[in-house]
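Input chain follows. Return structure tokens only.
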Amino acid sequence: MPLTELMLLLCLGAALGFFGGLFGIGGGIIVIPLLVLGFGMEQAVAQGTALVMMVPNLLIAWFRYNQRQPVAWRTALQIGLLACTTTWLVAQVATRLAPELMRSVFSLFLLALSLRMLLQAPGHGNATARAPRSPRLLPLVGIAGGASMGLLGVGGGLVATPLFSGWFGQKQTMAQSLSLALVAPSSVVALLTYSRAARVDWAVGLPLAAGGLLTVSAGVALAYRLPERRMRTAFACMLFCTAAWLLLRPLLQR
């Protein structure tokens, strides 16, 4: 690999690692389109290659978040098992569905979640905490996040975090910690599946992963320094931009 391309991948991985640590996501939702458009990869190979970067980023972010905001191991195990099982089951079905349709449905869902967070009145930031849903239902979010991972290989954290914060009244950082308990093991399952199907470009994925390892902890540290309201707003804006990009990308590629 040319040195310039290697440096580009390392820098890209570092940027996505920081971004992933800040918001508790793997960054695949960004890097997959870049690999398709910039490197000419097939969609499936791009998703598998992105997972090489996502897995270590997510595992480190999960460890860092748990140092500051521990999640009960029983809850984490239940969320992870449900997410992994759903990821595997949905992936079997998703391979037979039109990817364009699934991407559009997923994008509209993200758009609705982001608008709900952005339009929530500032004075009602803790409104959902007045009547929070039973914590025993927390593992069920693993089904929603796992379904997203199974359909697109990414997006589990984008779906789970708003559900944990909005439906269960969790603080943004705790919601991201719970979300990582879902996404981290699911990403390992997804990577193994793509690898066995020879849908991974390790020469591209490993430099991305190496760059991300250098910055993911810094992103987590910043997440705990930002005010709660600012973190929620930033996450909602990121969600909105992601949904808009996924909806507009097919038009831009024509």
